[in-house]
């Protein structure tokens, strides 16, 4: 009998995956994994276990009462986990923290496979997983514990789920604790990490996509593009990749490769530096063509530094742009420690 991976996204950003057996209810699968989802009656009467199904196919049966889940709520994707029987992999948003559900982040180990420098802008860190490949949603991140220190840093996967080798695109910061370690990191070095985390991930694709990446905010989009290739997606996807200097343009060869694999994928690069000779200069917002917005019938994903995220949000507000959905993640590079 088939089984399905169910991603439980908690409101504190933690994601846990549980295996749901064929015909099994999500609440029972979670309890079997020692995750105490909110519940009271478990009979479809109280509504305490109400969550939101972000994606996937499932059946709710007819044994619950309308006071627990109305038809309107059902149309909006709300579900009762005590009645929900998946027929595919699903993503479920849980309106509670992971700690309240007596669970937490997964921890796993890996060893360094390769450290690849990209000018003075970024580093690609490739790791071999020591056990089962981590399960995550394309776009999510992990906390990597920096060897030899008590610090950890957060990085999005730039590789797709299910791979035995995982990759991260890491911004180089002079004096930064991770950047300093990467200068001497060697194949075979052990790395510990926890996760996955984050609500920035690729949802079910039902319309054109607009990806907006700033700097190493490109990382999660590389994972998303790989997932789209595997799914043989036919939807239109356009990526605008903005950086400060031309030297900051990294992994462009990987993007070009995806353009050859996805029939309706296009991309453009933008450089902000005035002295640049790049054909497209300025800010990402200056290069969002009307056709990319598809009269609002578009899902927009944005990952970049806070000023870029704020600028895009302002651009949408000022121009009356209301995409069907807008998912974004801000990241702030960790600054070097300052000692007096």
From TrEMBL:
CDD domains in UniProt: BenDO_FAD_NAD, fer2
Database matches in InterPro entries: 2Fe-2S_ferredoxin-like_sf, 2Fe-2S_ferredoxin-type, 2Fe2S_fd_BS, BenC-like_FAD_NAD-bd, Beta-grasp_dom_sf, Cbr1-like_FAD-bd_dom, FAD-bd_FR_type, Flavoprot_Pyr_Nucl_cyt_Rdtase
Cofactor(s) named in the record: [2Fe-2S] cluster; FAD
Ranges for domain FAD-binding FR-type: 105-203
Keyword Oxidoreductase: yes
Pfam families, sorted: FAD_binding_6, Fer2, NAD_binding_1
2Fe-2S ferredoxin-type domain boundaries: 4-98
Coiled-coil residue spans: none
Keywords: 2Fe-2S, Dioxygenase, Iron, Iron-sulfur, Metal-binding, Oxidoreductase
SUPFAM superfamilies cross-referenced by the UniProt entry: 2Fe-2S ferredoxin-like, Ferredoxin reductase-like, C-terminal NADP-linked domain, Riboflavin synthase domain-like
Keyword Cytoplasm found: no
GO molecular function terms listed in the Swiss-Prot or TrEMBL record: 2 iron, 2 sulfur cluster binding; dioxygenase activity
Protein name, as recorded: Benzoate 1,2-dioxygenase electron transfer component
Species the sequence originates in: Paraburkholderia phenoliruptrix
Gene: benC
């Amino acid at each position: 009998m088939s089984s399905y991976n169910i991603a439980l996204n908690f409101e504190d950003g933690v994601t846990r995956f549980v295996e749901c057996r064929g015909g099994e209810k999500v609440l029972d699968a979670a309890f079997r994994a020692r995750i105490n989802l909110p519940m009271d009656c478990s009979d479809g009467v109280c509504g305490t276990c109400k969550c939101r199904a972000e994606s996937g196919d499932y059946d709710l049966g007819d044994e619950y009462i309308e006071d627990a889940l109305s038809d309107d709520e059902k149309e909006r994707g709300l579900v009762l986990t005590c009645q929900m029987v998946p027929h595919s992999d699903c993503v479920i948003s849980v309106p509670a923290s992971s700690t309240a559900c007596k669970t937490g982040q997964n921890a796993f180990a890996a060893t360094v496979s390769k450290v690849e420098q990209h000018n003075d802008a970024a580093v690609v860190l490739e790791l071999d997983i020591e056990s089962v490949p981590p399960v995550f949603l394309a776009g999510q991140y992990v906390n990597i514990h920096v060897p030899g220190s008590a610090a950890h840093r957060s990085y999005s996967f730039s590789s797709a789920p299910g791979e035995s080798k995982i990759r991260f695109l890491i911004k180089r910061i002079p004096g930064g604790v991770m950047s300093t370690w990467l200068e001497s990191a060697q194949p075979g070095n052990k790395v510990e990490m926890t996760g996955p985390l984050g609500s920035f991930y690729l949802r079910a694709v039902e319309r054109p996509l607009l990806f907006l990446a700033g700097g190493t905010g490109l990382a999660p989009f590389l994972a998303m593009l790989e997932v789209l290739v595997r799914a043989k997606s036919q939807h239109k996807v356009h990526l605008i990749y903005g950086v400060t200097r031309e030297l900051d343009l990294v992994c462009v060869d990987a993007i070009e490769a995806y353009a050859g694999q996805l029939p309706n994928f296009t991309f453009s690069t933008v450089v902000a530096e005035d002295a640049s000779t790049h054909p497209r200069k300025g800010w990402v917002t200056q290069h969002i063509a009307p056709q990319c917005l598809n009269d609002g019938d578009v899902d927009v994903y944005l990952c970049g530094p806070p000023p870029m995220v704020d600028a895009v949000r302002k651009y949408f507000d000022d121009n009356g742009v209301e995409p069907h959905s807008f998912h974004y993640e801000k990241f702030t590079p960790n600054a070097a420690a300052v000692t007096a």
